[in-house]
Amino acid sequence: MNSAINNIGHGSHRPASREAPRLKIKRIAAVLAFGAALVLCWRAAEIRPTVLLVPGTSAALWTFVRSLFPPDLSPDFLRIVGAAVIRTAALAIAGTTLAIAIGLPLGVMSTPTLWQRGVLLAGEPPGAGKLAVAWLSRFCRALLGFMRAVPDLMWGLLFVVAVGLGPLAGVLALAVSYGGLLGRVYADVFEDVDPRALEALHATGATRTQVFLRAVWPQAKPTVVAYTLYLLECCARSASVLGFIGAGGIGYEINLSMRLFEYGQLLTLILALVGLVAATDFFSRYLRRRLHANAPAGSLAHRHIENEPGSPSHADRRTRAALFILIAVVGASFYLAGFFNSTRAGLLSRMVRFAGEMFPPELDPMFLRSLALPLVQTIGIAVMGTLIGVAIGAVLSVPATATLAFAGEDEAGSRSLMGRAARACVYYVSRLALNLLRSIPELVWVLMCILAVGLGPFAGTLAIGLHTGGVLGKLYAETLEEVPARPVEALRATGAGPLQILLWGIWPQARPTLVSYTVLRWEMNLRVSTILGLVGGGGLGQAIYNNVQLGFYSRTTTIVAIVYVLVIMTDWLGDRLRVRRTAI
Amino acid sequence: MIYSLKDITKSYQSRNGTVRALDGLTFDVLPFESVALLGPSGAGKTTLFRLLNATLRPTSGKLSFDQNDVSAMSSRELRQMRRRIGTIYQQHQLVPSLSTLDNTLCGRLGSWSLLETVRNATRPIKRDIEQAMAALEAVGLADKQRARADELSGGQQQRLTIARVLMQDPDVILADEPFASLDPALTETIASLLLELVQNGKRTLVATMHDVDLALRYFPRVIAMRRARILFDKAPSDVSREDLVTLYGDDPEPEAGRPVDPDIQEPPREFSYKQHRAR
Hints:
heterodimer, A: mainly alpha, MetI-like fold, 3 domains, 27 helices, globular, B: alpha/beta, Rossmann fold, 10 helices, 10 strands
């Protein structure tokens, strides 16, 4: 499929007369291959749309929805929910802190412009030391790739075995998984700063550390801070899901209520989860804005010269207070996450023993063959789930785009009050729907889809589709809104309606970004689809869960390795697709 | 001799084979000499500067700085060498998000220990700040000390790079088009500032110039480069009209464009935080 796209991309520049027939054949072959792959994915994901149409299904769904109400708001249960929320928040904060502690040094080490090539290294004498450092840097980058490629829940499952049930396993899973992500993003940000400043400072005789502190860090800081705060949101979402596998907190309570058929409690918990994620989102957005507003030039040299009488201590005092609160919150989080428990004696030897049992990986052909079906299922779930998500996102994003929903509203006397109200209604309803779809994690969706279509990959596919629809719909709407406005204005001035503006003014400009988001999401969904099996959504997750439960740790290693290879291949394919598609 | 170049060649591997950016350069620069470097764009002047300040290594040939062979130096010795060479870049090469004052302070990095670097990020040493302020005063930017470097105009940025070099207090100044983004009045100011530096402080100056008149007026020695080679190396009184016609005359073959240097990247594209966010 990929090579065919490749050829189309090149073909468009060649003289048409000679290449046309061959190109046509290749194009047909590409379409056929793509179609075959889709059919395969459809089959693998066991998609049965008819199940959704059977009267029994809709009746069951209706019963489920009805039994969600009223939400359980009894004081006893609210106390449980409160404790779960606090525990999940503590998990997220402790996880983010550790992820920074892991990601920052590894990120610095794996920045190619600092250790492998570029201005800072071109003038250095060649030698074994220089080579060794470059290879160490490459190793760090590969390590980050591995940490990131294995999904957070899979790390969680491994850590549950290694350190026992409880929040500690969850924190470690977050730290490793998101440490890998953070490290890679840091490395990318450090690499992408303006290299001319590096060259200049290097030429004054500055050491590499000095160049990093004075030229790289000041340029990278705003992005690094923004992304780290964003990661806190991710960790909050992930922390609530980690409860499913025994880390405690909201996920654990959701799982419990589901199994007890206490759907009133379920609704309360989901609302608490949505509230927690929204609160983190709000908090990190607030901090980002504050920090952005307060971020003039880098150092504090100015305060020193100005020494305004009396006043300098004011800002100092606030900074100090903020720092104190931060340390207190982080400390409390680690405490709640079970870090200072003295009963953890023998933890290290337990971890070592577990690590020892994971090797060598199981390579028995029978076992490998048994993994073939779950593997194909995983891929099928990711592809079909993404497609469903694209469909949902596309449908909901258009009314959720402010520039379209309110197009031409300020034109003189163009709309009646009723018309305006209807438009606003459509806009807010679609935004709300997108937020709802997005804030419920895939694993919770799986549990609900199982109620509708039963255990198996179809439930997983639907779950991914619903969540992805929410995410993509929001991203699509944002992209459509942020399209450069002038061409759109020009179209509107010619008297084009909203649909024409969408097709001729917005779509051509937004297309590369839309494609890029979709491909990124597909890569991400592949990671997710490897773990859906933990709760009965099909794919490799089931296999890994069973083997962990049964204590077949060497088999677990094999599956983790397969997941790693699968993710790496998807990322590679995704990168190629993105380059091709956005270039055309 | 402060610089001694013997048959210096620098070549890059590009898609179309090997590109020679410098081809067999041989010349010496004496201490306290002022040399102007002339030549059309793409002649290799900037690459030569990168060799002279030890940002790049020559592919072949022998480059000596202050009687020491550069290719035999350790990383530490190279750093000490760079500390003695101040470079004024054509594209300013400032840290965009740091203030004017902080950028000036950066000139001192080479003589700070790591501890001092960290200390200077929070509580700068008073003596350094006073010197930095004096340097900003000298280039007429004292009132801009709080502004971010990327908020300055082109001419102000140019003056800021000069302030950074003043702060560095080097033995050798390499100036790549120091007057490129200055108006005529400022050019006079900065030119006299540079020359004053060279004459009073007993420093060596090598400057590339696109303005031939300026070069011939201010510099006692002119080296002209064309297509990676030296065309002539004379006193300005000996430079004839024909010399200049050959130097800047139309090329019979079209220029292949600037060689792409694999070690020095282009200025980056905007880092897409949103792309990562989508993950």
